[in-house]
Design brief:
heterodimer, A: 213 residues, mainly alpha, 2 domains, 7 helices, extended, B: 407 residues, alpha/beta, Rossmann fold, six-stranded parallel β-sheet, three-stranded antiparallel β-sheet, 14 helices, 9 strands, 43% helix, 10% strand
Chain lengths: 213, 407
Amino acid sequence: MRRPASVRTPWLFVVLLLTALIFVGVTRMDIAPGATSLREVGFEWVILLAGVALLLGVANVVWLHVRRILLGQRDWMLSLALLAVLTAVIGAGLLSPAGVVNPLLDWIFDALIAPGQAALYALLVFFMAAAAFQHLRVGRRGGAWMLLGFLLVLLVQTPFDGAALGLGEIRGRLANATQWLLDAPVMAALRGVLLGGGLALLVTGIRLLLRRT
Amino acid sequence: MATLLCPHCGASNRVGANFCNRCGADLRTPDADVGKTSDAPAAAGAQPSSAEGEQPWLDPHFLGDDDVPFEEEELDVSSEMTPPTPAARLVSGVQGLLEPLRIAALPEEQGASLPSPIPAESLLNATQMRQVRQWMAEETFVGAEVQQAATQLPKLWLPWIFLLMGMGVILPLLLGQSPSPGEPVRWEGVESGFQAIEALPPGALVQVLWAYDPATAGEMELLAAPVLRHLQRRQAVLDIVSLLPNGPATARRLFASLAKMRGVDLLGIPVPPAVDVRFLPGGAVALPSLGSVRSQLAIVLAAQPEDVQHWLEQVAPLNRAPVVAVTAAGADPPLRPYWQSGQLVGLVSGFDGAYHYVHLLDETPAPVEPNRMRFQFAVQQYGALTILLIVALGNLALLLRGGREHG
């Protein structure tokens, strides 16, 4: 008799069973006395494990780039720069008595990380503009509907000067119409998708536990 | 190691596998179990050497160990009284690779003695053959058309669109004056969120999930600042946690700026010298550990709706603390049902929410703050108008081209 393909080893079944028990435990722990503290210990383990995983990730990055430098692979200078910055940040955090709030780290965050992240995110507006130019067209299939929805949401969400645009009362009605659209058809579809996804996940989990693919 | 060869594509599979790892063919038929098991070295040795060199299967006449000539297979099937019933599957009848269709002989093969499955009169000439080869080397026709349209766009339009968008955003800076911001729509949920914080007694413990980083700080700080100022005015004790590595630093920076630009109404209220913001590694999995904190209110400062949903699913059921979501405008629509169902006691989102929350505070702000808000409103207005212009240009281009397009 062949083994089912879904559960190849008993260990996998044990892990799946444990996952199901933890799921039940997280949601219904209050029924068992003293189980709440057990749950909290479990979550502390999760946080500890995540911290160790983070450290392992850092070690992996260091090893990878050290090897690239030693072998002189392509763009090894970038690896060197990465390791130099990594060493500076970790060294500043470890050596300074102020820890993570020392002035050097504050400067790195304020002068490098924050502007860099904000600038990268701000680039999205250019791609959004290009996408709007390319796809919000009445001649495309369904493009008129997309354009209508886009204009409606933009008109309502943007704090335009309604009086200057001559909208006045119309804008309030548009806001109500948009609200209804979001509440009724859009949200119905969204909830359907969420409900369907949740049911599919549940069924798949049960089938896995029952060793049925 | 013993393996099972797929009868369709010849790939080696683990013994007991139900489907082929490569082509997905059903391996559960009786003939797949019997006589098809072989060791990998033996299978490798069974491959016939041919003139094709290292890839004999490229030869159209190549027959593997498990291949059956078409005519013989037909004979076998017709001779059997009960053909094997295929297993039930969602998509049936499409298994394995398609047999290569020989549409023409190569010019050098035309005089060869190999039997051709196509009549000689239907053979293509050399020019047509080159065209066929070119088509076969390219992607599909639809993909080629789409790719061509996409590659034309950057040459003609993208730089101009980027320039237009950049000018639309920079224009307020160049003009130095901003137009009147107008009155944004007052969505429901702002006032109830304000009331939830207003009802807090002094010294109440409030959990704050800091779920945004500098990437979205431009919008989120405008929202977070009045809410945090309100919490300070109510003298709430804040327990701030972030799942993002840059979250704590972002929070410290905002609190530092709040301390600098405190309004007149806040000057008499003591503010702790340093704000302790914890970083929790592990993402949403670590969130339920916050369920043991018995807070009187939870504030979720999030740029994405998922962070609010995770809090509502994993923390709120544990400590039963009411939740106020302070989110970016893009997160508002998915979160609106949570507010309507009562899972959120307040929903403050986008520039509109920030605008109305500041007015609800009814405090005397520092002079720099109204200017900053007016400036951001103006930038958003110009940006929105520019996008409208770009959309209009796109439709105008379509109109001038005079027709519909594929989409």
